[in-house]
Amino acid sequence: MTMRWIILFSSSNRRQQPPRKQYNNLNHLRTLFEGTFKAVRDRGLDHAVEREKHLKPLISLKNLIKREPSKSLPISIITQNKESLQLPFRPVEFTRKYPSVFHEFLPVAAALNAPHIRLTPQALSIDSDEQLLYQSDGYKEQIANRLLKLLMISRIHKIPLSIIEHLKWDLGLPHDYLHGVIPEFPDYFRVVQEKSRAFRNDDDRVLELVCWSNELAVSVMEKKNKKKGSDSEFPVQFSTGFEMDRSYQRWLSQWQKLPYVSPYENAAHLSASSDESDRWVVGVLHEILHVLVPKKTEKDNLLILGDWLGLRSRFKRALLQHPGIFYLTSKIGTQTVVLREGYKRGSLAERHPFMDLRSQYIHLMNTTIKEDGKDVKVVLGKINQDESNDKDLEEGGTGEDDREIRGDRDELSEAEAEDANEDAFEGEDDSEDDEEEQPRRVNFKTAPSSWGRVVGRMKPVRDSKRERSAGRSTQKFRERNPSEASRRLQIRGRNKDVESSVQRSRSSKSRRKVIT
């Protein structure tokens, strides 16, 4: 697929503070740039986005259930809140898809035996760690610093709470941040009501800056420049196979040499149609994505914030014009902007406790629970269980042989495992009628004992060759290394052969005597 774009610049009026720094000769105009790019996927960044599929609605539902006094909710109430929770499909199907997080049960006094949902002990354990993080003073200060940075970037140092709600997930805010975090930092910001500032007819409350912080008004790029002692270029990394137009390569080289203007500076002196203004807009996007904990967010969130800043159209151009700085993917049904600099081999370059907790939720989502209470991780539609050597010997095999086969399966990456889990669920209905795949189906019970439900999962076709080769290797191994029982049978068979041969020789001799 080839993506062709033409960049045309237009002026825009922005209300800004008087500039604190003056720059001369910063109006190198560029009115038209034309180039052709071939869209190239980045598997690592695609996986970084795709692995969090359904995580946001899952945590939203978890928080809703936990706020109830009984710590449980009937399915009917969850159905009523489906849109606000952003559930991708029917609530009953969603909760049954993740039995390690949600437990379905029938309360004794329930009317008409309506099923209820509560959290599993594993989910409650992770939630407990999450609440401890939210309540820590260090994390609250990090939240305050992120909000303060966004307010200092804003054109009038105010941001509507409706926009903060859009960025809440990526800012790492708790659901009660208005009462649990903001009041604890009265010197940073405050919530005020301004009907004239109502954004898109939403909530008229805005978060307002109280005191400017020179210490925090330093961008990530400025910190790097200070360490190097000179202006540095934006880190650029293109996907493997990306073909760059020569004219774009020359332009990018010249663009990187332009002076860096901080996103916290007043850029009203820059012409909107200049390369310097474009570089400043890239710096604003770069700093905003660095402020966000996962170093990524939905494109719509950036455009909504850009609309408030008066930079919506320029945000769009910057995202398209700089594929080496920003990566766009639509893996989870919506366009997501990823800061390439924030990731290394598909994982965050800098670990954060908040993202570690989300990884635990993702791990739990890919883990199911059998009726006997044992945790079993699903990998490529199969169940990883440690079988004892005694059971192997009863079946005529050896424990070492099965461990070798399981070792081959464990060599698969976690990324492939999670991808295959999603594929297994999505292709479940289509694969039920395929007779060839029936021997590879694995059944495991996902409901409580009162609701004995069985869900079938299909192994991917790409693993069939490995399974067949593993079966042949197991058979050859058993032929070369027979069990004790098989050895006895072989010895008995040999003895019978010897006895029968002796009898045949004796009978032949007797026949000869009779003939003579």
TrEMBL record:
Residues 506-516 have a biased composition (Basic residues). Residues 403-412, 460-487 have a biased composition (Basic and acidic residues). Residues 392-402, 413-437 have a biased composition (Acidic residues). Residues 387-516 are annotated as: Disordered. GO terms for molecular function: RNA binding. Pfam families: PORR. Residues 40-367 form the PORR domain. This is Protein WHAT'S THIS FACTOR 9, mitochondrial. It comes from Arachis duranensis.
